Amino acid sequence: MTKNTNETQNETQNETQTAQNTLILVIGGNGKTGRRVAERLEAQGRAVRIGSRRGEPAFDWDRPETWGPALEGVDRAYVTYHPDLAFPGAADRIGAFAEAAVAAGTRRLVLLSGRGEEAARLAESRLQDSGADWTVVRASWFNQNFDEYFFLDSVLAGEIALPVGDAVEAFVDADDIADVVVAALTDDRHIGRTYELSGPRLLGFAEVAAELSKATGREIAYVPVTDAQYRAVLSEHGLPEEFADLFTLISDGRNAHLVHGVEEVLGRPARDFADYAREAAASGVWDARG
Q: How many CB atoms lie within 10 A of CB 95?
């Protein structure tokens, strides 16, 4: 027997009411993926609380006393950790936060992790052991690292100098990550699952530079440097040297293969780097600055 119109309307109304009654905390809601996740959730009519130091209430990973107020009334949360789950102390904070979330009634937690990051596995385990309904999303390096912080100044300068040699990476688009995260936050079928995300092809940084050159219409070069040289640059700019360790994820080849979490969750192909580069270039973000 098929459903009648009234039954279908009632189900739709119930789903809408559930969405309206659900408050979702998006930690890092002003960041690359968090901003996109928040926008998508709000477009679905869901209530979103941005978890950041400037949020209301404020959320600060270094101040556990801020976690409780940020979790008040929250049903589920997207968990991102800055600067990276591989950094010292990250697992302890993730574990403590997950326990606090479950105690506060926040049952579903979706954690952004990294492909091949062995140190991040401990943080994943701590979150999984909290008793939450969890989903882990492991992502490759973001396309948006080239136009939103990190490599932006290098692209503007026309030279990307990194200690990765001719290694390749399966760059993934932040919009794809956000779509997967939203699905994990709103669909029970993703509870207890770990998804690994990548783009549709492997790229070396020389190929990345070529794609950026084509998109911008100006020459952008990739310059291989040594690990020591790169650490010296980080130190010169007051940045943690641990950032250099993250490039091991590329240079040792551990992620030099494609994975298919985007297709598995969303039923469509992942976005290609060339499409991202054309769109970013059209926005003017890489135009020469006076």
A: 18
Q: What's the burial of 218, exposed, middle or buried (CB within 10 Å: 0-12/13-18/19+)?
A: middle
| H/E segment holding residue 161 | strand 159-162
pLDDT of residue 150: 86
Residue 288, helix vs strand vs coil: coil
Q: What is the pLDDT of residue 191?
A: 98
Distance between CA atoms of residues 247 and 31, nearest Å: 21
- Distance, in Å, from the CA atom of 168 to the CA atom of 198, rounded to the nearest integer, reads 12
Look at strands 221-224 and 159-162 and give their pairing.
Answer: parallel
Share of the chain above pLDDT 70, in %: 92
- CA neighbor of 97 nearest in space, from 62, 73, 53, 121: 62
254-264 confidence digits (pLDDT tens): 999 999 999 99
Interacting residues of 274 by C-beta distance below 8 A, sequence separation 6+: 211, 214, 215
Q: From the centroid of its chain, how far is CA 250?
A: 17
Pair 143, 174: CB distance under 8 Å? yes
Checking if the pLDDT of 24 tops 90, the result is yes
